[in-house]
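Hey,

Quick one before I head out. I ran the complex with 6-diazenyl-5-OXO-L-norleucine overnight. Inputs first:
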Amino acid sequence: FKKTLQNDLIIPSWHQFCCQIKSIYEFCKPVTQGKVADYIPQLSRFDPNLWGVAICSVDGQRAAWGDAKKPFCVQSVSKAFNYAIAASERGADYVHQFVGQEPSGRLFNEICLDPHNKPHNPMINSGAIIVTTLIQNKLDMADRFDYILNYYKKISGGEFIGFNNAVFLSERSTADRNFALSYYMKELGCFPKETTNLTEALDFYFQLCSVEATCESLAVMAATLANGGVCPITEERCIDSRPCRDVLTLMNSCGMYDYSGQFSFHVGLPAKSGVSGVVIVVIPNLCGIALWSPPLDEQGNSCRGVSFCKELINRFNFHNY
Ligand code: DON
């Protein structure tokens, strides 16, 4: 409020900025490429025309367009926040005893490890499954789930965070690859000693993929990352500054599946996508953006989401380099 009165907000010409963002939103609307994920029926039922954009600045300035209030599952976007939470609690050194920092150059669910028998990074399934086992693993399953949901709510400044049980059940019943991946890692001793129950570990991972959010709530979560781990709405510190830096670095190099290198080249911003068609983008010290449109390209990224990011960089000088 004080910053508004003093005309000291991070984006002073908010109205003009929003006009540009709206025009990029409109520019991407006619994009018709891509295919909605169909590996589970719950995702395949989404209308390919759904398209939402929301933005939140590090000073809490907010705006949204299109289907920004409609809930969807965060899917792999959870991987970024789970890593940040695990690293905040256990420290980066401990977390990286079990998972690397390299882009894998392989599919997100591929059964492969790095030369040290570690998953390449926390943004692919193998790494994410291990990272989730590090979060509050002394609690029982119900308390762990409550804990993480409340943590997400804190990062989103109290905005909508839900859970889609049908997606969770579907994920679990079609999870042969994730089970295979986990047993392979178990055989090679990749899990921390305290992980004794793989079924529980995977259930927790599927539950976190099935957490629901909206563009509006995810924009605040992305803005918390843009703001060094402090939620811009509540001004509460949610993530320590070091894990916040670390997760942004990993999002920059590994957040967009097999397109991460090209995305980093063209857009130059940390981002994370999920198979529900969501992409979060972080412009450090400025704002968080959440994009959602279900049709995916061949790499598994939202077609409208990626074209939005490219157009954003055409119009603004936000590329980190
Ligand atoms: O583990 C799975 O198959 C999915 N629920 C992961 C979702 C996703 O967005 C892919 N990410 N890397």
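The chain has a mean pLDDT of 96.

Talk tomorrow,
K.
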